[in-house]
Specification:
With about 250 residues, the protein is an alpha+beta fold. The protein is about 60% helix and about 10% strand. The longest helix has about 40 residues. The radius of gyration is 31 Å and the shape is rod-shaped.
């Protein structure tokens, strides 16, 4: 029996998990509900920087103040850039085009990754029954993996540099462990799902070719014995023929 259905099922679970993690990261800062109001990319001490609050957290949607360890984001809009100069309206802190563009591209890439991950999830249902479904799902999943990897890499580059810049300016700063964990865990889940879909498709092909090659052979590789033609001959006639041969 081919292991393709089992591999496809595991892949579907991995993709569903990746989609959930990506959605949780996207919703952080957009919805003021627990637990999404605890998710952020970077938290920094921004007291005295222009219009900034005492503490600021950056999400996909806004730079939020912090109350009781929860995000407070009064105004939200998509693809909010990480650029402290623009965010706080001051030149007393770092910022620039590099931070601005990289953080905004993150939002576009994660949406593309999410779209292809959802496509892979639905195509994965076909992979339970078909090799073609396995390869199509693997293709969709690999595209989602590509864009999700870019998103996670941009996130790491932008916010690690931002944290270091804040610390260099004598401001405490920490990375958001939830968002970083979610984004890189989604990369790992999509990678494993892509590999398992490929293995399921290739395994199904090998099983089919093996059946054709072995044909009428038994489990141990020996041919099944053909039915003795003599068994169809009338017993009385067979005895007569043997007697004639003796004479």
């Amino acid at each position: 029996m081919t292991p393709r259905p089992a591999l496809a099922l595991v892949s579907l679970i991995l993709i569903a998990g990746a989609i959930l993690l990506m959605l949780l990261t996207l919703l952080g800062g957009a919805i003021d509900k627990n637990p999404t109001n605890k998710f952020y990319f970077l938290e920094a001490d921004t007291a005295g920087l222009g219009s900034a609050a005492a503490k600021t957290r950056w999400t996909f949607w806004s730079s939020c103040s912090v109350t009781d360890e929860h995000n407070v984001c009064p105004k939200v809009h998509p693809a909010y850039p990480f650029d402290p100069k623009r965010n706080f309206g001051t030149s007393d802190i770092f910022g620039g085009t590099k931070y601005y563009l990289e953080s905004r591209f993150m939002f576009a890439f994660v949406l593309i990754a999410l779209f292809f991950a959802v496509c892979a999830l639905f195509l994965g249902l076909i992979a339970l029954f078909s090799r073609i479904g396995s390869f199509l799902s693997s293709a969709m999943c690999s595209v989602a993996l590509f864009f999700q990897t870019i998103t996670a890499a941009l996130m790491t580059a932008v916010y690690v540099q931002g944290r270091n810049a804040f610390r260099s300016a004598n401001h405490t700063a920490t990375l958001g462990r939830y968002n970083f964990g979610f984004m890189w865990a989604a990369v790992a889940a999509l990678f494993l799902a892509t590999v398992l879909f490929c293995v399921g498709g290739v395994t199904g092909k090998k099983d089919k070719s093996y059946t054709k090659q072995t044909g009428g052979k038994s489990f141990f590789g020996k041919k099944k014995p053909a039915r003795d033609r003599g068994s169809f001959i009338d017993p009385e006639r067979q005895r007569r023929m043997e007697k004639e041969d003796d004479d």
